[in-house]
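Protocol step 6 of 9: fold each sequence in the batch and record its structure tokens directly after the sequence line. For illustration, a two-sequence batch is reproduced in full.

Sequence one:
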Amino acid sequence: MNNIKNNNENKENNEKNVEFKEIKTKEIDEIVEKLIKKEIKVYQLDKLIGEKNAVIVRRNYIEKLSGVKTEHIGHYTLDEKPAMQKNIENMIGAVQVPLGFAGPLIVNGEYAQGEFQIPLATTEGALIASINRGCSIISKCGGSKARVIGDKMTRAPIIATKSVADALELKNWIEDNFDKIKEVAESTTRHGKLINVSPVIIVGKNVYPRFCFTTGDAMGMNMVTIATEKVCGLLEQEMAQKGIIINTVALSGNVCVDKKPSAINLIEGRGKSIVAEVFLTEEMVNTYLKTTSKAIEYVNTNKNLIGSAIVNSLGFNAHFANVIGALFLATGQDAAHVVEGSMGITTAECQEDGLYFSVTLPDVPIATIGGGTRVETQQECLKILGCSGNGNSKKFAEIVASAVLAGELSLAGALAAGHLAKAHSELGR
């Protein structure tokens, strides 16, 4: 027994030594040659030589194939092991995006209260300067008021039936048995809660039920997918008892709607739905933006509302995507969700004593735990905001909306005052 125990311990120690013993140049060349000859596959390297060495070998392999010497992507401080377990496959290094900040930005939210410095990762010159100006103006006006008005994550499978009559039978059963569906869905997760199934759409003989969950501080896409799969099994069993054969064609039928712009998400919301607003007196508009409330309202109406409407855009705003994208990269959000976060409406209303200005973001899938928020650099950015970990997703949402408000106010003011080209000439180069 002792021999077996010692052998197992030696095996574990040997595996650890293989993982952390830096591979030699000669060994790299030999393995790269085997990869080129397809004697081994790139994804097998992690187990064969350990994560750190696998990254080095794959990078050399890419250099050999492309003829490009990678002098920069191999320099990083990330821990490869957790990244390769949760965030990336076939890792060869890391891409660096310049990181700056805008602020301080005063936020008067339900969850976010106080001054915040906003980390932003971007390669677009003038962007952070513009957002920073918006932060300064909003803070001088007392800060933004922000609220989370909706919170849900969705998954909508395609379920095929034999006829429209069967499809209607399935739709009716779903609508009549919410409690049973909820129990099954929530049996798969400690954090996910099914809040409704809406809408349940029939197209021909196919049914598209949209399952809506709350997912705590996780973005929750994987969570709701697993729960929906369990529900689909329940539906198949229940319909079979009625003599109706149904089949789950795909767990995602695009009615979710994930990572695509859509009217349903604009109307019903997805992820965090957020509003941020600020009021500026006419004197503040004149002093800080060098223009008038009437001019900003005019620009917003004709650009963000009419201009967007004439091309059937789902983004009735100036540049939500700029701020959302820079914040998402900095804080480890799923970058593909920028397409959803870029939808929304900017409101500018000239009032008797000044300007009411707001942004409505109905579809911002974000998280403060899991996914890319685990990565060390992104984790630090969330910590700068005081938003890392459990209990912080709604606070983060209010900060995101307030940062978008700053970006929209600054750009609207620049357009109304005719300063946009000058700023890009000086800072964008």
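Sequence two, same batch, same settings:
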Amino acid sequence: MPGTLGGVLAVSFPAAAFGTNCYVMATGRGQECVVVDPGIGVEEQLREVLQEFGLKPAAVLLTHGHIDHVYSVTPVCGGQIGAYIHTDDRYRLRDPLTSVGPQIIGMFEQQFGSRATWTEPSDVVEVVGGQQLEIAGMRFGIRHAPGHTEGSVMFALDGIPDGVPAEAEVTTTMLTGDVLFAGSIGRTDLPGGDHAAMERSLREVVLPLTDDTLLLPGHGPGSTMARERATNPYLQNL
């Protein structure tokens, strides 16, 4: 999904496993960029995107610490740029493989033909809800929304990608990670998940979003807040 986001270039593509969406955002071609949620096996496709648009990563933003969202963070950071993650999920970057069951590890190794390994990023920057990050000429607002994990966050960014139809009536963008999907929400039955916390996040962080918010989730297609407010059963049941 290439496009411009209020003058900002935005590209997204799925990782090689679990369909995790990786996002690349910059103020334009030939500029520094921000990479959001570099999951499993994204290095080659990310390299192609960076080369095509002449981009240089300035930071990696992580919506949470699950392996399918962070597996490529260390090679992408390359020891030179920071990996930003909420304080409550910081511990997950020490070794996210420890929270993955042996069946998932086995499936991973069978698919990629190599042993799953992990090296912690050398520069980890802890963030908190309400914080504003100014990176590569862009401003990202952090919304702490625990439930899927303790440190799950959403990243707010002004503007929308070009190519979004006018009838969508959206003016701002939220990278929702695994908090909110089109028609669903992130699961809460994994270690660190908390259904009551998720309901609070949906009620106090998600529902107050304006209807003109474009939602870019960690998995699956994008949506709008107006659509999710009207059709998402997890929001309607609150």
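Proceed to step 7 once all outputs are recorded. Observation for sequence two: The radius of gyration is 17 Å.
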